[in-house]
Specification:
Chain A: Its cofactor is [4Fe-4S] cluster. The structure holds two protein chains of two kinds. Chain A is of the alpha/beta class. Chain A is 43% helix and 14% strand. Chain A contains 17 helices and 14 strands. The longest helix of chain A has 26 residues, at 270-295. Chain B is of the alpha/beta class. Helices cover 46% and strands 12% of the residues of chain B. In chain B, helix 1 packs across helix 6. Chain B starts with a strand and ends with a helix. Classes of the chains: A alpha/beta, B alpha/beta. Chains A and B meet through helix 2, strand 3, helix 3, helix 4 and helix 5 of A and strand 1, helix 1, helix 2, helix 3 and helix 4 of B.
């Protein structure tokens, strides 16, 4: 296997010029973050103030989850709401009161701004203040924007957490704050590892319940588990907290680097650190190695989606032996990404933003072995003969820290494995077709393919 | 403002996308913020299309707001034309762009592209997806369908099939076969599969088949007015409706009605003794108006069900569905709020629900079998196999689809007879497909509630006896018995009360 040693060149991709593009973005807006955030914050309700399009987006993104009485919804703006603003606030108050009477378990309400509510300049910040006064102190109402004109996909979580920070209680204690919504199982593993290292004053943001909301102060140090938390980081800095710079905890190497950065901050001895991490490190390495056989030597192209692209490219190139062709990201936060970029060997193009047609042209020219992209692009690219891994799954599936490292590699290996398994694959099986578009008009049946 | 979780329909620009994506050679430039591309995945994932929808989004951002967005739109139009070379361009605004009041039509016209550029006015805060499709198709037809010589042989257009339509792909095949058997050629199928150049030939047909009024009626009416083409009023879903349709099409064509029914198995299946237990089953029908009207007729006249309630979510058809409900002696549910629909179903306690994916989940929750008859639907209702709703094969498909969950229901009943058996305990609750999804805790709304109100108490052995009633009528039995007891001032329900009530309410 062609896995590079742990000591990477110092500069890596840090000096690679970034291709900045504007044009059509084939991405989700920040509202989508609600889908996983509401699972995490178990007493919160996310109320989007938007249009039918916003409701339709959430429905499409939530899939079958929408049938499980989730704690989010859309107050759909109607024509009469657009006419006069005072009226819209009354309408909103009424809908919130109705909601709270129906769901007495709710302790936090997020008023989530959308493109329409931003454009008509509906002042949701003031509405949140008013509603907090009205329903407080038991219920807390917070506003943030998940609109497409301001946020891309995972930036919705950033906007949400950043909006929570100013309201966090103050503390003078030296505590570690782990920032970013992780699946419960992953969060428990992280807390357990930190505990074993002897770091036990650990809080998480977001907390599962409003009663566990962390406090913050000038002695707080925090570590990000997700790369898309630039605004949250800035908000925490404004409260006097200090960030521990680290790569993100993906793969064996990323997790170890992340934990070690935190451990150093709390004066943990290297021997103790090695003792605690030895077994899970070995497990993670073995699990990754099994999948890396399929990935080694293959090229990968990242379309922008979640800002996870750079850390994932680091994981795939260093731990799985892949070659990155292009790493696209919706937003490149230089400061947060510096430790990651330093670890990626020079070579891949870095792109920020998107002009989807131009980017597709580049992908077609590169013919990568694997393209990581959104669901709107995945099937069309497959039909052009390019193997894809749809990116949104990487946000919903547990992928961080040691125990998930193998699963993470598996997510990328599976599409490649599948196409080698399918004997009748239209583009790679024995009966290879032209690859043209299928007839969708009725009445015209495609001729039967003769197996060779 | 209205709090919503499920929406039966998307915004109107998604309807426009359904038209553009169904067609060939059309490109849609949509003035929209980042994120509206989510709608692409309805087509690439749910309908499993192998190419991107022909839509360019301007993707304006907060910093563009102001004069910049108009320039952004003009550039997107030019780029889309250069790259895709469509035969025609449609341009419009999504809900947010509607608020910033750029004028897509005017801006696109000013560029002076050498192809037809058709502006769309889709009021996002008043109308919905079906309107968007109907209006978009109408505008395309109005701009493109000029006069044309009628074809020598009798021909018809099939109007209404779109991208993301429930079984549109296979219905076209079935209806084409029906027309061909009479001796009628199909001139153009549109929007699905047609190019703008095909739309210019629409007037060559002798008449139009309006397959889906939701998405084709405005165009059909305009063609009738402008080019003197009559259009069919019967949608050929169900055996009776298909026969009526053949009569109607034949008379419009001036040909004798002819049909090859050798493939039709539904009438015999429905007449065979195994179907006797379907008699009088109470069904609730909900969906889009076209499929609801067709399903109600099939349910009553071809399956022998009792239509216990019906309704639709598209208000455009409220009047006709209310009239239809009157024919069936029920109250129509016209609502796009799933809570209204759930309430109606819970009150009626039907034995079968025919509806959309929303009703499928309502059915799951209430433990009532369900079959899907209408959009919106999930990926499993864009099947690989041939499965039309229209015509003879459609009738066969419908019989199987509707009966399947009921047969499963009987199987479950048999299983409950073995309830003491370790494998078949009561917690393995019913699902719409008779699977073993655990029943949510919602079900025990029963005795404790009653006991609290101090009205009627179920004695233990009556409660045990009630559990022997098949789950799909158990709710009704409980309600009836309680009502029976309350009427008579009985406040304890014994086995005798249960059976007296059963005798009282026996059909």
């Amino acid at each position: 296997m062609n896995v590079r040693p742990g000591n990477a060149p110092l500069s890596g991709c840090a000096d690679t010029p970034v291709l900045k593009e504007r044009g059509q973005h084939e991405v989700f807006c920040g509202l989508t973050g609600i889908i996983w955030l509401h699972r995490k914050m178990q007493d919160a309700f996310f109320l989007v103030v938007g249009s039918r399009t916003c409701a339709h987006l959430l429905q499409s993104a939530a899939g079958v989850m929408i049938f499980a009485e989730p704690r989010f919804g859309t107050a759909i703006l109607e024509e009469k709401d657009l006419a006069g603003l005072a009226d819209a606030h009354e309408e909103l108050d009424r809908e919130v009161a109705k909601l709270l009477s129906r769901r007495p378990d709710i302790r936090q309400v997020f008023l989530v701004g959308s493109c329409p509510s931003e454009v008509i300049k509906l002042d949701l910040a003031r509405a949140a203040e008013r509603l907090s006064a009205l329903h407080g102190p038991r219920i807390r109402v917070i506003n943030y924007s998940g609109s497409g004109i301001e946020t891309t996909f995972t930036q919705g979580e950033d906007a949400c957490l950043a909006a929570m920070v100013p309201g966090l209680p103050a503390t003078e204690a030296k505590e570690l704050l782990v920032v970013g919504a992780l699946p419960d199982v992953v969060e428990d593993q992280a807390l357990s590892l930190l505990g074993q290292l002897g770091i036990d004053t650990v809080r998480v943001l977001p907390a599962r319940h409003v009663d566990e909301t962390p406090a913050i102060g000038t002695h707080t140090v925090y570590a990000l588990t997700q790369p898309f938390l630039g605004d949250t980081s800035a908000a925490l800095d404004r409260r006097g907290a200090r960030r521990i710079a680290a790569p993100f905890p993906f793969g064996e190497e990323g997790t170890t680097a992340w934990l070690w950065a935190v451990a150093q901050e709390f004066g943990v001895a290297r021997e103790h650190f090695d003792r605690v991490t030895e077994a899970p490190r070995a497990r993670a390495k073995a699990a990754v190695a099994r999948r890396a056989e399929q990935l080694c030597g293959k090229s990968v192209f990242f379309f922008p989606d979640s800002q996870l692209e750079i850390p994932l490219a680091r994981f795939l190139t260093r731990e799985c032996g892949m070659t990155a062709v292009e790493i696209g990201t919706p937003f490149l936060h230089r400061d947060l990404m510096a430790p990651e970029l330093a670890l990626i060997a020079p070579g891949p193009r870095l792109s920020e933003g998107q002009d989807v047609d131009l980017q597709l042209d580049r992908a077609r020219a590169d013919r990568p072995d694997l393209s990581v992209c959104g669901l709107g692009l995945a099937n069309p690219l497959e039909a052009e003969g390019l193997a894809t891994k749809w990116a949104i799954e990487l946000v919903f599936t547990p992928v961080h820290f040691y125990e998930q490292a193998g699963d993470l590699a598996e997510l990328f290996a599976r599409p490649l494995n599948r196409r080698s398994l399918l004997k009748n694959h239209p583009f790679f099986g024995s009966g290879k077709s032209s690859g043209g578009s299928l007839e969708e008009a009725g009445g015209q049946t495609a001729p039967l393919k003769v197996a060779t | 403002m209205k709090l919503s979780l499920w929406t039966y329909e998307g915004p109107p620009h998604v309807g426009a996308m359904r038209v553009a994506t169904g067609m060939k050679g059309v490109h849609y430039v949509l003035h929209a913020p980042q994120g509206d591309t989510y709608a692409d995945l309805l087509f690439t994932m749910i309908e499993r299309r192998d190419h991107r929808p022909p839509v360019t989004y301007t993707t304006f951002q907060a910093r563009d707001l102001g004069s910049d967005t108009a320039e952004l739109f003009a550039r997107a139009c030019r780029d889309a034309y250069e790259r895709y070379r469509p035969e025609a361009l449609i341009v419009g605004a999504s809900c947010t762009a509607e608020l910033i009041q750029d004028d897509p039509g005017g801006l696109a016209e000013a560029i002076g592209l050498p192809i037809p550029v058709i502006p769309l006015e889709l009021p996002s805060y008043q109308r919905k997806e079906n309107f968007g499709a109907d209006e978009t198709f109408f505008q395309l037809v109005r701009h493109l369908a000029g006069p044309a010589e009628r074809t020598d042989r009798v021909s018809a257009n099939i109007l209404g099939p779109t991208g993301l339509g429930f079984r549109h792909r296979d219905d076209i095949v079935e209806v084409t076969a029906l027309l061909n058997e009479i001796g009628i050629d199909v001139n153009v199928v549109a929007p699905m599969g047609a190019a703008p150049s095909d739309l210019t030939r629409l007037a060559a047909a002798h008449f139009n088949v309006l397959l889906y009024p939701e998405t084709g009626e405005a165009a059909a009416r305009w063609l009738e007015r402008t080019h003197g083409q009559p259009f069919t009023k019967t949608v050929p879903i169900g055996v009776g409706a298909t026969r009526d349709f053949i009569e109607e099409a034949a008379s419009l064509a001036g040909l004798p009605a002819r049909a090859d029914e050798t493939r039709l198995r539904q009438p015999w299946y429905s007449a065979s003794v195994d179907s006797t237990y379907l008699t009088g089953k109470r069904v609730f029908v909900f969906g889009d108006a076209t499929h609801v009207a067709a399903a109600a007729r099939i349910a009553r006249d071809e399956m022998g069900f009792e239509v216990a309630g019906l309704g639709c979510y598209n208000r455009e058809f409220a009047r006709s569905i209310r009239a239809l409900a009157k024919d069936y002696g029920v109250e129509a549910v016209i609502s796009d709020d799933y809570l209204d629909v759930e309430e109606a179903i819970a009150a009626l306690q039907p034995e079968l629900i025919l509806g959309t994916q929303m009703e499928r989940h309502i059915g799951k929750r209430l433990g009532i079998p369900c079959a899907v008859i209408s959009s919106p639907v999930h990926v499993q209702d864009f099947p690989a196999r041939y499965s039309p709703q229209a015509g003879w094969e459609g009738a066969n498909v419908i019989f199987d689809t509707w009966v399947h969950p009921l047969v499963m229901g009987l199987e479950e009943h048999l299983l409950t007879m073995f309830r003491e058996d370790f494998e078949f305990h009561d917690q393995a609750g019913p699902s719409h497909h008779g699977g073993s999804a655990p029943r949510p805790a919602a079900s025990p709304r029963d005795i404790s509630e009653q006991a609290k109100t101090g009205e009627v108490i179920w004695l233990a052995d009556a409660e045990t006896e009630l559990k022997k009633v098949p789950f799909f009528v158990r709710g009704k039995a409980r309600r009836n018995t309680e009502a029976f007891a309350a009427e008579r001032g009985v406040n304890e329900i014994s086995i005798d009360t249960l059976y007296e009530a059963k005798a009282h309410y026996a059909r």
